[in-house]
Amino acid sequence: MDAPLLTRRALLEAGAVVVGFSLLPAHGQQAQAAAGVQRSLALGEVDSFLALRADGTVVVYSGKVDLGTGHRIAMRQMVGEELGVGVERIELIEGDTALTPNQGPTAGSTGVMRGGVELRQAAATAREALIAAAAQQLQMAPEQLTLADGAVRASDGRSVGFTALVGGRGFELKMNPKAPLKRPAQYVLVGRSLPRPDVPAKVCGRHVYVHDHVVPGMLHGRVVRPPAVGAKLLSLDEASVARLPGVRVVRIADFVGVVSPDEWAAVRAARELVMRWSDSAPLIGHAALVDWARSGPFVAEEVITAKGDAQRVAGLRDAPGALRASYAWPMQSHGSIGPSCAVADVRPDGGTVWTASQASHRFLNVFAALVELPRDKLRVVYLDGAGCYGMNGHDDAAADAVLLSKAVGKPVRVQWSREDELGWDPKGPPQLLDMQATQMPDGRIDAWETDMWVPRATANLEWIPLLSPLAAGLRQPVGQATGLVSQNGDPPYGANAVKVTAHWLGPAPLRPSNIRAPGKVANCFAVESFVDELAAKARLDPLAFRLRDVANPRGAEVIRRVGQMIGWQARPSPSAGAAGRAKAAGRGMAYIHYKNNETYVAIAMEVEVDRASGEIAVRRVCCAHDCGLMINPDAVRAQVEGNILQTLSRTLHEETTFDRSRVTSVDWASYPLLNFTEVPRLEIALVDRRDDPPLGAGEAAASPVPAALANAVFDATGVRLRSVPFTSAKLKALLA
Amino acid sequence: MPTITMNVNGASKTIDAWDPDMPLLYALRNDLGLHALKFGCGLAQCGACTVLLDDMPVRSCSIRIADAAGRRVVTAEGLGSPEKPHAVQAAFIAEQAAQCGYCTNGMVMTAIALLRAVPRPTREQAQQALAGNLCRCGSHDRVLRAVQRAADGGRA
Fold this sequence. Notes:
- The complex is a heterodimer of chains A (about 725) and B (about 160).
- Chain A is α+β, with helices and mostly antiparallel strands and about 725 residues long.
- Chain A folds into three domains: about 10-195, Aldehyde oxidase/xanthine dehydrogenase, molybdopterin binding domain (Aldehyde Oxidoreductase, domain 4, 2-Layer Sandwich), CATH 3.30.365; about 210-280 and about 335-425, Aldehyde Oxidoreductase, domain 4, CATH 3.30.365.10; about 430-735, Aldehyde oxidase/xanthine dehydrogenase, molybdopterin binding domain (Aldehyde Oxidoreductase, domain 4, 2-Layer Sandwich), CATH 3.30.365.
- Chain A is about 30% helix and about 20% strand.
- Chain A has 19 helices and 24 strands.
- In chain A, helix 17 links the parallel strand 23 and strand 24.
- In chain A, helix 3 (about 70-85) runs parallel beside helix 4 and helix 14 (about 520-535) packs parallel to helix 18.
- Chain A starts with 7 loop residues before the first helix and ends with a helix.
- Chain B is an alpha+beta fold.
- Chain B has two domains: about 5-80, Ubiquitin-like (UB roll), CATH 3.10.20; about 85-150, [2Fe-2S]-binding domain (DNA polymerase, domain 1, Orthogonal Bundle), CATH 1.10.150.120.
- Chain B is built from five helices and five strands.
- Chain B has a five-stranded mixed β-sheet, with helices on both faces.
- The radius of gyration of chain B is 15 Å and the shape is elongated.
- The mean pLDDT of chain B is about 95.
- Classes of the chains: A alpha+beta (about 725), B alpha+beta (about 160).
- Chains A and B meet through helix 6, helix 7 and helix 17 of A and helix 1, helix 2, helix 3, helix 4 and helix 5 of B.
């Protein structure tokens, strides 16, 4: 790719221009130049997704955004493939409520699977229309025409450029869900590891993150969070920061913010502002989470899965040979490297919010209500943030900026502190799972029961309140819905009877939200650890056990492959040499069929445990991954690598700690992440399935990591880790 | 208002310093518009704000502007551009060694300092050198590959 794709800033300007055109007379010269004159945002219209420019470039309008995940290249490949246009001729505008259709939040590993597939269908619809128009013009049969290099080309060598066919107008087409797609055998763009267009600018420090976005006249804002969750502001002494340059204090009920043209002055003002807050101690402390999960209060009980003979499951409780175990997952932070940031410019007659949100369209409604503007007077524009793996603090930061900008009548940029980010970002929920099962004489699962305890707020039923409107006493409409945390609580292996029940907890501490593979990481940890326990009880090799009983051939394929990759020696766990040695080596594996209907992943790893210290060194991780058609294999690989390393970090180190009043893990010393010295060798095999639909790669490979690690530690030591994180202190105590 | 002068990316720059304790990060980002370095923690724990100060990688969030007076500062902007990247930046691009990319500035700066000191580092040496740089997306393996690639290119 020689010609660089337009920079993000250029795209924003281009986008702004397109909006401007809709205000001009349709016959204006500039309007001719912009094909997307009337920006339709309706999901059923091709023009909502695609526009042709006079210079032959294509503009793609994507409601889904690139969170560092490679969508910027993948979306171009999917559209370019159908239209016969090179990726360097495609501009992409993402997550802008004035320009892009609402394709739903960029969440749940659906970017390519849903968002990209929708764009592809728009392109296929356009392709069909372009061919039909050219067929008429050239007096040829559609079958004799193909799309290549921005033109419809006939078998006799003649061609018609797209712009000649569409002119300055839009396509004016309804989406045709049946428009034929290009056949995978003919792909020239899809399936290739084209480089991501944003990487050079990111590496050279030129990429514009929301943190870098500058608006003329912009002030820097900081919001002061209370010293305890739920504390009320009793008094505030504005004079305490009066000596700092340009500082203004904004108070709305218990919401306190400061602004200044000078960022450092705002930082200091937030630290030095003298305030008195009420005592508040509404939390239970992280050590009490397991007891709380079991005791409630509960708001609902839901049977998620019930298969086979219910009597067998009912009999589990008293079955003498049943195996039982409990697994716990702690609250965790998104741990974004950049604290959340946003810029808002809210005026009495309208405004713009620049945000790293996964869900700009959804939050348009929230922010418009907050500032009492009609939806069409407010625009929410996505700009990259630091990696976000679910709803982190970005949407809170945007609300902060919106409230401050409205209060002072100027554009305001808000960036959180590290302490705010780890202390106040919406958290991954605590999860507790009880498992019990009986086995047939050959070890196969007879009856299986999972009971999961999880906050209901994380189950798509409620919503996460934003901090600042809450403190300010402002009404806020429904916010971000979270992931489907109850999936993958059942074993993906044959069983005579299975029951999975979710016990939904009511009010939960610290705004439980969703983090990468929400719920499934903990569920797979429990299910695949417990499967390992069943295999060990039956004295069966854990890989052979899974391979024998896995229901799905694509699942069997990834299990088989990961065994080959790691050189799996068939034998039961724990390893015969497990006792005695100072350094104990072991191997373990785990498997998931993500959400029971998406990507297939098997992970195996080798670990070494230092018995004296309890430290776990992960030496090697192998992963076999089948997500159907891969648009860009290297981008898939990057996601798989990230899933593995991030989840090793979550499993080995991470737990949000809190006391009765506040989060106490608020820096990188008290909330440590995996560091470079802990990075294992990674080997990844991507199963190529060109003729299958594309599935997600952003989450699935995270899920089997914790169980594979626990199973490897068990293999090495004979000790079973059933709660995360696997700290050296915890393992040392278990080994003693 | 007192001013502080330093050499930034080869040019002399004078900055108004109402507070000599202001971290260098704010002067570089806001006074000079150099956005490659990022605020990550303000605690010198993550490395996202790394710049070279007299050729040594330092955390600009934790260096007082007064302590940078008269010294040489190099940011990523001073090393290369997407059109003409530095050899280490080129290696990062070739390995696609960034996801969100927020930490990448610190990775590149630390790698450059490492390769100047140890032109052919082992993987373990690179891991040690980067131990103070945090990445959340999990690009570590690609960063290590990029360091290796830059070293193999012979020039850093």
